[in-house]
Amino acid sequence: MLKILERKGGDENKKSSNRVDVLQEVKQLLKEGADGNLRNKEGVPVIQLAIRNKHFDCLEALAKDGKAKIDLRGP
Q1: How far is the C-alpha of 75 from the C-alpha of 9, rounded, in Å?
Q2: C or N: which end of the chain has fewer Cβ atoms within 10 Å?
Q3: Is 16 helix (H, G, I), strand (E, B) or coil?
Q4: Opening angle at CA 48, ends 42 and 51, nearest 5
Q5: pLDDT tens per residue, range 13-43
């Protein structure tokens, strides 16, 4: 999940055959048991990565389905 959310949110008008639907990937990973409070090697929580990389559509899924703690602080 970290790798998916660390990708920068790009121009939504760009079409690519290898473009990943980040929200669907996050939902699937959470459904399979991924930890919504996971941190990267620098200690940044997944929810902060989503915000930093403009994946705002993932925030609700992370908070509700992943039970991400929105008050976690990064390094």
Answers
A1: 22
A2: C
A3: coil
A4: 135
A5: 444 445 679 999 999 999 999 999 999 999 9
**Tokens of residue 8, six digits:** 């920068």
CA distance 40 to 49: 9
pLDDT of residue 70: 81
The amino acid sitting at 21 is D
Q: Which residues of 2-40 are buried (b: 16+ CB within 10 A; e: fewer)?
A: eebbeeeeeeeeeeeeeeeebbeebbebbeeebebebbb
**3-state DSSP assignment of residue 9:** coil
Three-state SS for 17-53 is: CCCCCHHHHHHHHHHCCCCCCCECCCCCEHHHHHHHC
